[in-house]
Amino acid sequence: xxxxxxxxxxxxxxxxxxxxxxxxxxxxxxxxxxxxxxxxxxxxxxxxxxxxxxxxxxxxxxxxxxxxxxxxxxxxxxxxxxxxxxxxxxxxxxxxxxxxxxxxxxxxxxxxxxxxxxxxxxxxxxxxxxxxxxxxxxxxxxxxxxxxxxxxxxxxxxxxxxxxxxxxxxxxxxxxxxxxxxxxxxxxxxxxxxxxxxxxxxxxxxxxxxxxxxxxxxxxxxxxxxxxxxxxxxxxxxxxxxxxxxxxxxxxxxxxxxxxxxxxxxxxxxxxxxxxxxxxxxxxxxxxxxxxxxxxxxxxxxxxxxxxxxxxxxxxxxxxxxxxxxxxxxxxxxxxxxxxxxxxxxxxxxxxxxxxxxxxxxxxxxxxxxxxxxxxxxxxxxxxxxxxxxxxxxxxxxxxxxxxxxxxxxxxxxxxxxxxxxxxxxxxxxxxxxxxxxxxxxxxxxxxxxxxxxxxxxxxxxxxxxxxxxxxxxxxxxxxxxxxxxxxxxxxxxxxxxxxxxxxxxxxxxxxxxxxxxxxxxxxxxxxxxxxxxxxxxxxxxxxxxxxxxxxxxxxxxxxxxxxxxxxxxxxxxxxx
Length: 577
What we know:
By secondary structure, the chain is mostly beta strands.
């Protein structure tokens, strides 16, 4: 142990209790005690198609399984809906029944079952029909099925009619032929009948031009010229730029390498835009170049970095990077309660440790105990930074420890604001509780991530509960890493299996995140990360932790953090009940 670290830690031992017990979770959690995935639901529903012609004759076959066995209406299966508006207009003369005043509607009679037990749903009007099933006390009410009823022939509609003209936001074109959704063989034309297929990568319309665009589609021998679609592209929100200095704005840092997906690049100096006067240099060769019309597109996957110079200032020490990938950028995660801003909050506990630190099992044991305590476990997330000894196979470097002034081990830093070296369980718990109660949850975090090879693209959304300035960062955590841990006190438990280990952190120069600017209460802002994984990491054991810092007047500190279960995830905002 380094001399300074050793003597500083001896001082902290005066207040450390050694009456410690083994527990289940924390850094060094036993591999066999890792949380298991949720069991498969007992009741499931599958559809032969998610769409149908709304003519009362076309149908969708519905299969319901209970504990792996197909069940039927004759056996007591019932169908329900919370919205009878579509069926009220149906030609089917069936009365609705309710279980209670204002409760759901029993629509079992709308589902035809033949003698072999095949269940069919017919819808006589165009619209969306949402339903759920109930059987043997189980229901799918929290995960209802949706059937889209569309006109006969060729039909097209937009996922939304208004987009932001930033080259990132998009409206998806959904095309149906004879009641079934089609995604290939579609051609796009403007109203002068000129082809515009280049504007619709993967049937999505994006633009950096403000205004309206009207178009129609063709499929096989049919087209929708008589029923065109119109998208309105609005000016992006005003960019929140610093009042002083040189600032480079990117509408996104990740795009699809398809030649259409685009990033808008703007440069500001002392709050005024100077994009046309600035000089741009590519890295690593420092060659001067220009962005055509202030937009970057590419057909080659990879990362492109550059720096900007204006007058006597430049960004060579803080270059900008745009990453292009060969797969579609994940969509914004869904919001299960758009009108709510009451979020669950968690404290970010960064644990500074290392395999050569013989006293670090003290903090590991404390964090295990606290993660096993139901009254506090859900109030914090752990991210372990191995920065003590460079021979540690999980060594992250000293960037984080230097940024937060960590010199004594073990240490924890809570919400990137409070450092403590006392590993006594009551002291750590009080610190977590105090930070948890210190500030209200000012934002919620949603994550939709996908993996392609060693590249992870995470589409993160931040929804504000109060108008504040926010910053965002992300970490890749790995569990189940085997490495021998020094243990001076011979504490009980497995300390050679390491979890919550930070493999990568992307949070800007100070680690307190990238600027999201001021977000108004109830509004949502997106940020997309592209993360490159090392071949030595076990991807199946990796997951993401996303944290958001808020401006508290005296600095930016973590206000919330969420963890995914895996690298591929679709995590919605978590609301308080």
